[in-house]
Records
---
Amino acid sequence: MQKIQSSYLVDLLSTITARPRLGSRPSDRRSPRELCDLLLTDLGDLQSSQVSRALLAKYSELSAEEKYAFFQMLAQDFDIDAPRLADLAAKYAAEKSPDTLARIIACAEPRRQELLRRLNRVSGATADLVAMRLDLLAAMRDAPELEVIDFDYLHLFRSWFNQGFLVLRRISWDTPASILEKIIAYEAVHAINSWEELRRRLLPEDRRCYAYFHPAMPDEPLIFVEVALTEGIAGNIQDVLAEDRPALSPEKIDTAVFYSISNCQKGLRGISFGNSLIKQVVEDLKTALPGLTTFVTLSPIPGFRRWAERQLGDLPEGAADAAALARAMAAAGDGAAGADALRGYVAHYLIEERHPRGGPLDPVARFHLGNGALVHEINLGADLSENGLRQSCGAMVNYLYDLDQIDRNIEGHSASGSVAHTRALANLLKSHAAKTKN
């Protein structure tokens, strides 16, 4: 496992890799199409760099309509030569010549892939291309035919952003303010509303935050995770984020609670960082804190309320509408019959409901279960924030990463779609099924 770099080494790496752009981007009278054609010719390194900078500068000045036209041009004029590829395939079927195979491989790659590779040779271009893909994703909403271009971005990004290039950094109160500002802005699960609130998440010794960075984007976090070090498994976010919470002494810590994971770069949608991030953070925490025995999440259930609203006819008495369901979940105490019924619906949603394309219906469940976790516990009234009530009626779930069972859970989930869960939840599901059937 790759270890976290020291602050000095990471800053050194950032200094080396954050090469400044030399001079301002040149003004160029040629059209984007002319610059694209020129960039794909046999240019020297200096001229190729100049053309790349000119094309990136030209793109940045385009309007939304002009960017749409640019993507249409890439889709239509820089695609594969399908008739020629068919002829080569037929020729290879008749005689499996290595020369023909090489020509097939070259012909099967769209010209726009090589265009993107050459653009990426310019210092700072990786971030520009990530931003360009974000524009493409927006254009695809009205023009799904542009998805053929997205295959090229994904193919290249998965290579450029593979785990071997990623640098894991601990984010602390001493991290540069420019990066801390981005942590505040990118937090997607539990909003950070002030610098004081950020300080409470970073400064105490029983709190951790880790982020992945890429050498080509040294000041832009790709994904980060916030961790609470606790005694026992945390069952609600209010206690984790409490303002007057005393820091836990190191000798009492036995559990690492991953309570927020935020992807930062929307232009990298579809590139998975979370799996390797969690594994690396677990390894680092095990080394730093040998007393840790439990690794668990405190996760939102973002799709539950939407699903519950479609099931209102089946909900127990006292939960006649979604607002009543949210209030009931927030107020229900342990052992209450209403709480047991509501926990049953949440368990059914997480473990039994399936997405049309496979896997659990809930997106957070798909992520953690696909990475080998198991559904450990359902917590009612665990997130009473406006967002928590709106998304999951205040419920949260603990996914347990049992290090001895992760591989087995992944294998079962991949092979049959099984959802690993505790015996207590299995009994709850059985009881829930019997009650709703009657």
Note: The two ends are 52 Å apart (CA to CA).
---
Amino acid sequence: MSTPEPNRQGPALIVGLGNPGPRYAGNRHNIGFLVADELAARAGGKFKAHKTGTEVVEGRLAGVRAVLAKPRALMNLSGGPVAGIAKFHKVTATSVIVIHDELDLPHGTVRLKRGGGENGHNGLRSISKSLGTRDYLRVRFGVDRPPGRMDPADYVLKDFSATERRELGYFVDRCADAVEVLAAEGLEAAQNRFH
């Protein structure tokens, strides 16, 4: 069994990305919120507004103290709230775990990594700018490429298709499992188990 990521002080800070409000709730872009909601249920908590511009649940996941956060800003402005909650809990930028949608992966595929580019993802771009680094942990949930010539921005702001929704619960569970392993055992252990 691997040991936890070195040098993490304080809780695991796990951020699900999405857009707030019912209008966006079922969008592909909101998969980070869906996974965060599943993790909150596992931790036995309900999201509550926090002064950092996030909604937060504190609890334990896989035996590790965890703070789950969902920015209350629109996706493209999520960096400020993420940096705020990291600072509030004294979590270093490199220990932040961000769950987000990924166009370059098939639907339901989960991949974990540290750092890298943003691939046109404005939520990640905002977070990288606000944290001052790209070197945070990412849990990438595949939503596939848009069909035909559809604009990727329009595609991620559409709800999952009926076919995709049939298996969505399973994929959200699996992604939540990967986040728990990442928080408790570190990146290598999580990659070995879920890639």
Note: The domain at 12-194 is CATH 3.40.50.1470 (Rossmann fold).
---
Amino acid sequence: MGFVKEFKEFAVKGSVMDLAVGVIIGGAFGKIIDSVVKDLVMPLISAVIGSVDFSNMYIVLKGTVDNGLALDKAREVPDTVIFAYGNFITVAINFLLLALAVFMLVKGINSLKRKQEAAPAAPAAPSREEVLLAEIRDALRSK
């Protein structure tokens, strides 16, 4: 029973739950960034470079492959060695955008924390003893 109790305490700690929420949100955020790369950024880059689909960009190092053949089909050709750099470009851009988005998020959170720390704390109400001592002091001064 000690192991189960210890595991339960570990699993329901705030930090573990925060981590679980972070992983779930991170997965969804990754899908959003993936969509931004595939649907928004890559078409713009493709328009400039002239290629429509980065994932099918490759160089045949050994063997012969028909020009314009999709990467999947080119990999099926026997005795060929293919240097598939297009998918790497897509993944690298995806990573850079995700890193930029996370950086901006962390920067915003740090800015909010600094503003919160810089705000002066409201003065605490005096305790009962302080009020009583102030009354005694004022009474002594008035005599």
Note: The chain has a mean pLDDT of 82.
